[in-house]
Amino acid sequence: MGANLFTNYGEAVAMILFGIGFGNLLLQNNLIKKIIGLNIMDTAIYLFLAEKGYISGRVAPIVTDGVQSMDAYINPIPSGLVLTGIVVSVSVSALMLSITIRLYQRYQTLDLDEISFRLKKEGL
Amino acid sequence: MDFVQNFPAVSILLCLFAGIISSGLKKNAARWVNRILLVTELVLNGCTLAWVAARGESCVYVMGKFPAPWGNEIRIGVLEALMALFFCVIMLLSLEGGVKKLADEVEEGKTFLYYVLCNLLLSSLLALVYTNDLFTAYVFVEINTISACGLIMIRQNGRTIEAAARYMIMSLLGSGLLLMGICMLYDLTGHLLMSNIKAQVEVISGIKQYRIPLLVAIALMSVGLSIKSALFPFHAWLPDAYGYSTVSSAAILSSLVSKGYIFLLFKIIYRVIGFDIFASSRIIDILFLFGLMGMIFGSLSAIRENDIRRMIAFSSVAQIGYIYMGIGMGTQAGMTAAVFHILSHAATKSLLFIAAIGLTDVSDGSRQFIRLTGAAYRNKWAGAAFTMGSLSMVGVPLFAGFISKLMFAQAAVQNQVKMLPALIVLGISTILNAIYFMKTVIRIYTPYEDYPYERVTFRNIKLYAAALVCFIVLNVFLGVSSQPIVDLIDQGLAMFS
Lengths: 124, 497
Description:
The complex is a heterodimer. Chain A is mainly alpha-helical. Chain A has one domain (2-122): Helix Hairpins (Orthogonal Bundle). Chain A contains five helices and no strands. In chain A, helix 3 (31-53) runs antiparallel to helix 4 (76-107). Chain A is elongated, with a radius of gyration of 20 Å. Chain B is an all-alpha fold. Chain B has a domain at 282-497. Helices cover 78% and strands 2% of the residues of chain B. In chain B, helix 6 runs antiparallel to helix 8 (211-228). The A-B interface holds A 18, 21-22, 25-26, 31, 34, 38, 41-42, 45, 48-49, 52, 77-78, 81, 84-85, 88, 91-92, 95-96, 99-100, 102-103, 106-107, 112, 115-116, 118-119, 122, 124 and B 135, 138-139, 142, 145-146, 149, 153, 157-159, 161-162, 164-166, 168-169, 172-173, 176-177, 179-180, 183, 186-187, 192, 244.
């Protein structure tokens, strides 16, 4: 168990980061901190994928010097997944930031609970 | 007739193109593009359903040039085609029923964006339903989330923006867990296509290796999708999102968006993990427990609510609980009941939302029960439709809700351990449903003559009334001739594995 954790330290770090990001996204009150948590969480997943796709001693799968053997390159699919994931994560971060701007313009605060409290008081 | 197998791919692409085209159009043009698109989708998916049901076996449609382990695939089965057809019907009716309200609540220059979002939402739903690739499913889950967030926010006031923020936060937590689960599963099996993953999962569990990672992956995906579909403890965002967005959005969100995620969970259970492996893990017990809690606490919150829209929203929490209870029973009958409840709840809940808006409109826009007294006399169509929807929700025979409750009860009897809690909670939840829905029906039919608002005549609300009638017909159809639908669902579930 402990030895496995040490050899796969990359995955272990990814999991810890995932937990940190998840906790921040869930528990922080400040919207900006929530978005930072979201990005940490997503990045942890990319680290996990990159770590899984990497085979030590091999290089990125781009044929430059004529080597076409499969044994020379790492697994390209996780890298592709990471790229797709980054696109998704950028767009949801942008959307969250725009919602945050809207809320800040209305209520001059970034605290989600404070905003809910004021909405209740407005009685909309 | 083999060209029919192109239809699912065409229908997904058509939605995406319609979304792109609509973004450059004016309000009415965008609305017509959306209407034509939805009717086309109805025809396409109807043909697919007829074709695949007659064919008797599912087929796989390869997207692009690469064959199975590498390429991307669409899978056409009876259940997929049925769901796609049903989603199109509900979306068409919800949009037609809420179109007038949409014009009131959304800024003039932004209405076309609503249709863009609807087209994108439909494309993502169809892709979720048809895809055979887990990562594609994840990408479309995110597209679904983003467009659903737009649907909540399109009516701009403080409440909706706050609801959208809360919705996004919960959804992102869910999709984070889902993505992590998919990555772990990819790591264990080396595949992204559902059928290949399933073959590998069988090998792994056959040699009894990697049990904990497999369990963690299943748990992450199930929890992620149940957060996204607002299972009981994760429902905090739901009442505001359904209660304050424009009415078509509320109907679409409650009956399509959350159901899309549940359908993806079904696909994962059957097509990725395998039903037996999923049923033998402890995760279904947790889903069962939370389903039961949702049925009780959702109804209790609905009883306490003084706002008709929020009451219907809380009732959704209870109904989602029913579906997860069906999944949690771990029997085929429970699964069939859960799929049928997806259909019946979608038909009923959108009817209730659309009918409720007619009632609040004739009560000075107020949603408080005290102001709704006698509203059914001022808008007879909405009153009758709301009553029908309530009866269906409570589970009166002739309506869709009765059949799903009956099927849940039958499924519960087959599982000896879970029979007692399931039946007891089903009974309690039905009584609670009856309390809050009948309370509302009695309230809207209490005569209150000297009210200063005018009665609505049929001439003003033709389209709205037509949508309501279609919804009622759909409900009664599901309730009266349920057997063919149940047979189709059984056939579809058999094709899944």
